[in-house]
Amino acid sequence: MITYRQIQHSDNQGLAKIIRSSLIEFTDKLEGTVYMDPTTDDLFTLFQKEKSIYFVAEQEGNILGGGGLYPGEGMGIHTIELVKMYLTAEARGKGIGYKLLDMSVNKAREFGFKNVYLETLPELKPALHLYEKYGFEYIDHPIGNTGHGGCDVWMILNL
Q1: pTM
Q2: Three-state SS across the chain?
């Protein structure tokens, strides 16, 4: 049985490993991505910020992945960013990513945001398919200052 919960401090190492191994699996473009982001090693602390949240999918004590929301710098008051959404290879294609995405979007509405923004890489095709299926639309420019200049695919969902 898969359970979904908010991040705990003890999740940091496992989530960082999932994020970095997923990026290595799909691309060699790591500079300017979450791979190099120092916050990847301490997601629990990062998501203590007001109007931020990170969800973890877990099965029998094993972390399958996670994803969350973060009110990034320069996003404005109406837009929140979907961030650090990654799954283990074994967890993909089973609806887990969709559930994490849906939980995040519903929380964005609850927080009062009007848009959910994300940045990603074209190589992450399974993620792009998920975002498209959910209703995210491509835009031709980044929003805010995420610090991930290596990401060159930008999408938004109007809530």
Answers
A1: 0.93
A2: CEEEEECCHHHHHHHHHHHHHHHHHHCCCCCCCCCCCHHHHHHHHHCCCCCCEEEEEEECCEEEEEEEEECCCCCCCCEEEEEEEEECHHHCCCCHHHHHHHHHHHHHHHHCCCEEEEEECCCCHHHHHHHHHHCCEEECCCCCCCCCCCCCEEEEEEC
